[in-house]
Amino acid sequence: METEILGERLELWPQKAVSWPEREILLLADLHVGKINHFRRSGIPLPVKANDRNVEVLLELVEATKPKRIICLGDLFHSHYNPEWEVFGEVVKHFRHISFELVLGNHDIMSDIQYSRKGIQLHDELRIGPFIFTHHPLEEIEEGAYNLAGHIHPGVNLRGKGRQSVTLPCFYFGAQSGLLPAFGMFTGMARIYPRKNDKVFIILENKIMEVSTTS
Amino acid sequence: MAPDVIKIGKDWFSARGWKAFPFQLEAWQAFLDGRHGLVNAPTGSGKTYSLLMPALLEFIRDNPDYKTKKNNGLQIIWITPIRALSKEIELSGNRVIEGLGLPWKVGVRSGDTSLKERARQKEKPPELLITTPESLHLLMAQKEYPDFFKSLRAVVADEWHELMGSKRGVQVELALSRLKTISPHLKVWGISATIGNMDQALEALLGNYYHEKDYAVVRSDIEKKVEVVSVLPDTLDTLPWAGHLGIQLLQKVIDIVKGSSTTLIFTNTRSFAEIWYHRMLDAAPELSGLIAMHHGSISQELRNWVEEQLHEGKLKAVVCTSSLDLGVDFRPVETVIQVGGPKGVARFLQRAGRSGHQPGAVSRIYFVPTHSLELMEAAAIREAITQKIVEDRLPYIRSFDVLIQYLTTLSVSDGFYPDQIFAEIKTTFCYNSVSEDEWNWLLNFITTGGDSLQAYDEYRKVGIHEGLYKIENRTLAMRHRLSIGTIVGDSSLFVRFVSGKYLGTVEEYFISRLNPGDVFWFAGRNLELVRIKEMEAQVRKSSKKSGAVPSWQGGRMPLSSQMSEMIRLKLDEVVRGVEKDDELVFLRPLFALQQERSHLPSKSEFLIEYFKSTEGYHVLMYPFEGRFVHEGMGALVAYRIAQIQPITFSIAMNDYGFELLSDQPIPIDEAIETNVLGVENLLKDIQASINSTEMARRKFRDIAAISGLVFKGYPGKPIKDRYLQSSSQLFFNVFHDYEAHNLLLQQAYEEVMDFQLEEARLRRALERIAQQKIIITHPDKPTPFAFPIMVDRTREKLTSEKLEDRVKRMALQFDSLD
């Protein structure tokens, strides 16, 4: 599925990522790597295997989109250091030719050393072309620019006859700002309320569907 | 020969002008003979003294110097389901202890007990300790807890019928399994109101003692006469076809209140209590200051105040919920009113018993219907009372969540050796069937988090040192102690004035829909939401008109199977034209309309209605089996129809029937032809329908909280570790995807099987239906039977379509500004 924003062509992937082919950039948000370990460390027994999916899907995406840069819109790693960081670091090291970059989010609280050890570049905010990449959505956006953000873990609600209703994760593109779905497992979802003329793409199991036709 | 201590007891009774009832004497003798057992007696019948007295007499018998023996260590534990009861027991206890000249101390241990008092109890244990199941477990989370319990002679589980039907009953079973080892001379006794499965209640309480030891069942022959009077409107039109509130009859209720000294008004949910209280004040402002409200989400302080005022006869009426069902007897109460269907015979009788205290007096209970068909329940309950029918209470079995909580408790205090504890839990009714494999899984779960330990894994909870399973980490220990009280998993917020005064709790779901400045009605006050901070909703009083009234989950009781049977009986009377109850006579025009639009089924007929509306296509079926069975049967029938063709259903139910609603035509004729109501492959289809609905997911909410997966803080102590917060839903998903053999996950499915889709009961219902003639009607308009189900908003979902196909027919929900 594709969409166009300020003349730039973006590809939307059901693995919950956006690629920007012209610039060879892969965008992800809210991986929350290591969250499982934090629970386990506090005596809450989540299966460790649930960690693996993040990495597996990321490998799949890299294979499919062959990016030069991978930019994470915040919350890459869940809070303080734990050994899962080393597992993720292995992946980063493996793709030496790809630049891994992180726009810092509220959960990215590890010391800078941990990121530089793995060769991950840090940004508070990143501008490329017309886009301003941030973790928290910006409240004010200058004319001619477009903000892409994470943090929210957006989902929308759809209703049909016979009292049917589903809430699904989505990509959301408003007039001047857009939201990426949370990439990570075990992250939850927050319902958003789009306005008319916004573009919304829901994520079905292995497919993306646009639901935003002005109704 | 031991002294005749029974005479001592009798003498004390006569000195007070009382005479012991035969059942009391029987219980005294059985207890003194060293037996275990159960006293079956209603509230207010002297049940407390039936067991408290012999426990004291035994001490007198065994200790000739009893009058001077101080600090004897813990002798008796009295377990009550609610804290409010402990005051009453404490009073009775002190009275008789003083009267018999024992230098004993009485202690209360509950969530309200101060730290100072706790420390004192540990230092010098009271001889009689009154406590709740949670607090008893907390005592076992203390270092060197066996010392505290070693002199114990008896445990009494009060209101055992109430405890047994919940996981708190399981907590009692577990505590007993430990205490039986620590104090070998322990006697186990319970007190229970009458339930259908008395024998099972005894077995659950005694565990292995049921098979190995001498026990006695002592029944009181005290019987209360109950009269049921329905409050009828002047015309049938006044009553709506659907609804839960019954506010149409407000004036008649106010008249009853004014004509009586003190009235208890029972509602089925906490929100209705709030609304009724509110409306009564609006309609009769002169009652202001004379009426009050009482329910489980109001702070203890407010509740205590209401109870005191009730005792002193200062209140004209109290609007309440099941929070006043149990225990304490309020003498001034003259009249009892039940708003809405009572749903169960036992509960109704208990409520009715709140009035008419003079011996031989008739307890009269007024029934206020909230919608017209509910009047059938009044007729049904009258029949059940005549036939002396009462419900069963099902004890929980194989509750792995409570077991994990218990093992963690033992790890927090002195640690445990698995072989010993496994042998102990096997003596309980709940865990009798736990296999060695399951036990090993549990041990693994608490030590390694379910996975085999990996090099870099930092899972820490229970450690093993020379075979002893123990938690050393103090933070973990603290968090566990705080979570023991969490036996219900709803996430609730504390409501507090900005100044700090605590008012009670509301569910997070409700508060999250409000904005600061919004006004809501709670604890009988208009409150403005100021801010939400941590786990607290801070409020101030407001004079603005209130909008919202909070709703609390879990307020809806299903109709018991016994009541369901009575309803079917009454309906058949109507069909045969032999109905005599006032309520049924009053409802005649409604039944006529049902007959005109569709059909009124006799007991040899099964009615199905099928029609189209603007909402979609509706199939309604009326088994009259109660809400829980309908939830299961609805899911089962939906699942089976969905095998005929890809289709999506939204399923609603009430106590009389269920509805399958779809946006596409429903192949109902084909469904009947292929026997969707048959019993073939029942178990397989039940399992498949559980998998395709949300039922297990909902059960998992409580399981996750009890087993310590989801930690929500505790009154006054919100969690600091916000990063550890997660919803039980996410846990469910992760386990489902990565650890399908997880016993907690399996427990969720088993609970659905045991309580919702109970195979035996479903099978019986389907077998009954198989004997009936199926009648399908196509009404033009919703019928009186259909309407209350159709408007119900709590719905289950079942689909055999691809998500993609479903979504294509749906529309995105926009911001309400658009």
TrEMBL record, chain A:
Keyword Hydrolase on entry: yes
Protein name: Ligase-associated DNA damage response endonuclease PdeM
Keyword Ligase in annotation: yes
UniProt-listed Pfam families: Metallophos
InterPro entries per the UniProt record, alphabetical: Calcineurin-like_PHP, Metallo-depent_PP-like, PdeM-like, Pesterase_MJ0037-like
Domain Calcineurin-like phosphoesterase: 25-140
One MF annotation (Gene Ontology) recorded for this entry: hydrolase activity
Gene: pdeM
EC number: 3.1.-.-
Gene3D superfamilies cross-referenced by the UniProt entry: 3.60.21.10
Species whose genome carries this gene: Chryseolinea lacunae
TrEMBL record, chain B:
Pfam families: DEAD, DEAD_assoc, Helicase_C, WHD_Lhr
Domain (Helicase ATP-binding) ranges: 28-213
GO MF annotations, alphabetized: ligase activity
Coiled-coil region(s): none
Entry superkingdom: Bacteria
The Helicase C-terminal domain, residue ranges: 248-408
Swiss-Prot/TrEMBL keywords: ATP-binding, DNA damage, DNA repair, DNA-binding, Helicase, Hydrolase, Isomerase, Ligase, Nucleotide-binding
Name of the protein described by the UniProt record: Ligase-associated DNA damage response DEXH box helicase
Organism: Chryseolinea lacunae
Organism lineage string: Bacteria, Pseudomonadati, Bacteroidota, Cytophagia, Cytophagales
